[in-house]
Design goal:
Layout: E1 36-37, E2 40-41, E3 47-51, H1 60-70, E4 74-76, H2 83-88, E5 95-96, H3 114-130, E6 135-138, H4 148-169, E7 172-176, H5 192-202, E8 207-212, H6 213-219, H7 223-230, E9 234-238, H8 256-265, E10 271-274, H9 282-293
Parallel strand pairs: 3-4, 3-10, 5-6, 6-7, 7-8, 8-9, 9-10
Antiparallel strand pairs: 1-2
Length: about 300
């Protein structure tokens, strides 16, 4: 996930632009249960999103157009220069991509990183709010010998410096839970209990976890129980088939209809972002994923 350019002209968001400090989705309408959207019939309990990076070989304009046809209402992990493209197709961006100073390995778990990350987020968050984007992704960074207790304290201290601005703007910072076993060796925010404790220490309604189902299946399993027990600490969800982060169909070990029912039953009203790398026709796989998650 690469950070996009930070600059955004006021005219770029056109009619979607809002007064500073006010956050509203670019396309707030949610299909009512039983509505026909595109080629699918939406049940209406899950708001569907798709992660841009998984479709890097497809033009963003084409991805947005095809997603809108399927009833997907968000293309996420976009930078500021890409948000207007989603808006032209009536889509929002559920989660803005990371700022340049906060790539996955270098994050809030070290105090020496705080000033640069805070500076970038102070520039980014007003743009996120103006564009009506609900969330901004952040990362803990890698351990590099740091204990989990020390990393937790540092993350909490850094996040407390920026959450007041997030609160004023109505934007939620979401720290992604990633596996440190296969894909992101040494990443610190790699287990739900650690992340939940961080949410508790930051103690802001504008800081939550991004619960990536694929990553936490690798690290912990017990996905549905975790969602039920800790849903109040979760601000966003990502999918992905395990093993391999491929399609979320019968070829892998997770059963997404049951997982998405559990998410819906918690009262969650945010987005579920498809974050699998298609191994077949990308749009056939994406439509099938939406059908499986539309509970």
């Amino acid at each position: 996930m690469l950070a996009g350019a930070v600059g955004l002209a006021a005219t770029a968001v056109g009619a979607a632009a809002l007064q500073p400090g006010v956050s509203k989705p670019l396309n707030p309408a949610k299909p009512a249960p039983g509505d026909v959207v595109g080629t699918l019939v939406r049940k209406g309990r899950i708001r569907h999103s798709v992660c841009r990076w998984c479709y890097g070989g497809i033009k963003l304009d084409d991805l947005c157009a095809r997603s809108a046809e399927m009833g997907i209402t968000s293309v996420e992990l976009l930078g500021p220069d890409e948000w207007p493209t989603a808006a032209r197709h009536g889509l929002t961006c559920a989660v803005a991509t990371n700022v340049p100073s906060n790539p996955i390995p270098r994050g809030f778990n070290r105090a020496e990183n705080h000033d640069a990350i805070i500076k970038d987020l102070e520039q980014r968050l007003p743009l996120v709010a103006q564009a009506g984007i609900p969330s901004q992704i952040v990362f803990s960074g890698n351990r590099a010998g740091l204990s989990d207790a020390d990393g937790l304290r540092a993350c909490a201290a850094g996040l407390k410096r920026i959450t007041p601005l997030a609160e004023r703007l109505g934007v939620t910072l979401v720290m992604e839970l990633l596996n440190s076993k296969v894909d992101h060796k040494d990443y610190q925010c790699d287990r739900t209990p650690w992340g939940v404790e961080l949410v508790n220490q930051v103690a802001s309604d504008r800081f939550r976890l991004l619960y990536d189902i694929y990553h936490m299946q690798i690290m912990e399993g017990d996905v549905i129980r975790t969602i039920r027990d800790h849903h109040s600490a979760i601000g966003h969800y990502h999918t992905g088939g395990n093993p391999g982060r491929r399609e979320i169909d019968e070829t892998q070990e997770l059963y997404y209809p049951a997982i998405c029912r559990a998410i819906a039953e918690t009262g969650y009203t945010g987005f579920v972002g498809q974050e699998f790398i298609p191994s077949k026709d990308p749009f056939v796989s994406l439509q099938r994923a939406i059908e499986l998650c539309d509970v």
